[in-house]
Amino acid sequence: MVGARAVRAASQSDSSRRLYDRIGDFLVDQRLDPDPGNYAFAYHLLANPEGPLARAVHALTDGGVRLTQRDIEKLGTEVQPNAKVAKEKADGLVAATQMQVEGFQDMVTAMRAETQGFGRDLAASAEAISRSSDGSGSTVIGEVARITATMIERVRSAEERLESATREASELREKLEEARDNARRDPLTDLPNRRALEEAYAAQAASGARICLAVCDVDHFKSVNDRFGHAVGDRVLKAIAEALSQTCAGHLVARYGGEEFAVLFTGVSIQTARTTLDAARATVATKRYRLRETDAPLGEITFSAGLAAAEPGDGLSTVFHRADRLLYAAKTAGRNCLLVG
Question: Which of the 8 DSSP states describes residue 311?
Fold first, then answer.
C-alpha cells in the first residue's frame, strides 16, 4: 500500500517536472519574459493541450509565428470565461451583502427612534409618579419609581449599544463601497479598469448618448522594459495615464490591459474627440523622460491610437474592434499618430 502511494507520488512528481520544463521551453521559444502572467498563460495552455486556449494559440502561431505580449493578454481574456463568471459572482455577493448591511442599518435606525421614544415616555412617567407622591414614603409608589428608573437605565444602555451598531454598519457599508470601487480600478495607474469601461459603455449606450471610443497603445513599450526594467516601464505607464486623464478630463480613461489604454468619449463629436486625443498624444510625445535614478534620458515615448464612433446598437466589443484595427494601421503607418474611422 505504502509502495503504491510512493509510485503514484513519484509519477506525479515526474509529470509536474515535465510540465514545468515544457513551460520554460515555451517561454524561451516565444521569447516571452518569465513573469507570473506569462507563466500562468503557458500553464493553462500546456496543461490542457486540447482546450480552447491551445486551439487559439495553434491558429495564431501556425507557420512559426511567435506570440507577442499583446497576443498573450488578448487570448488570456478571450478564452477564459470562467474568470469573468467568477468576477460576476463576486460582484453579486458584494451587492447582496451591501443590501443586507443597508437593511440592517435602516432597522437599527428605526429601533433607535422607537427606543428613544419609549425612554422619553418612561422618564415622563417616573417624573409624574414622583410629583404625585404625598411624601408619606408610599411603598407602592416608591417601588414603581424604582422599577421605572431601572427600565430607563436599561433603555439608555440599549440606545448606546444600538448607536455603536449603527456606526459599525455605516463603516462596513463604506468598506464595501471601497471594495467595489477597487474591483473596477487598475492598481498601477489608479485608472478605471476594463470592467469599469464595460459598465460605463453599457450605461452610456442605454442612455442614447453619442459615444466615441479610442484605443491607445504605447509604442515600443517592450523595448522600454527590456532596456530599463519593469519599474521604469511602470512609471512610463503612469505618466501616460496622467497625460490622458488630464487632457481628456470629463471623459472616462481606462487602462485596458498591458500598455493599452481606452478613452470613452461621450456627448461630443468625433472631431472633438480627435482634437482632444491628439492633444494628449502630442503632450506625451514632446515630453522628455529621464531615469529617476541617474537623470539619464529615457528617449522618446509615444503612443499610437485608433478612434471610432459607435453606431446605434453597437456593443463595446464591436466599437473596440474597429478602433483596434485603426490603432494597428497607425502602428503600420509609423507610430506616434492617430487614425480615425
Answer: P
35 Rama class: left (phi>0) / alpha (psi -120 to 50) / beta = beta
Number of Cβ within 10 Å of residue 22's Cβ equals 16
Question: Which residues are catalytically annotated?
Answer: 259
Q: Is 129 exposed, middle or buried (0-12, 13-18, 19+ CB in 10 A)?
A: middle
Residue 190 corresponds to which amino acid? D
* Coil, strand or helix at 261: strand
Asked if residue 224 lies in contact with residue 236, where contact means CB atoms within 8 angstroms, the answer is: yes
Quick one: which of 261, 336, 326 has its CA closest to 302? 336
What b/e readout covers 95-110, taking b as 16+ CB neighbours within 10 angstroms?
eeebeebeebbeebee
d(CA 216, CA 77): 18
Q: What is the pLDDT of residues 51-82, one digit of tens each?
A: 778 777 776 666 556 777 777 776 764 444 44
How far is it, in rounded angstroms, from Cα 319 to Cα 311?
8
Contacts of 23 (CB under 8 A, 6+ apart): 39, 42, 43, 46
Residue 10 — pLDDT band, cuts 50, 70, 90?
very low
How many Cα atoms within 13 Å fall on the side-chain side of residue 97? 16
Nearest to 216 by CA among 280, 271, 287: 280
β-strands 338-340, 303-309 pairing: parallel
Measured CA to CA, the distance from residue 299 to residue 290 in angstroms comes to 8
pTM above 0.90, yes or no: no
Q: Is 140 helix (H, G, I), strand (E, B) or coil?
A: helix
Mean pLDDT confidence for 82-101: 57
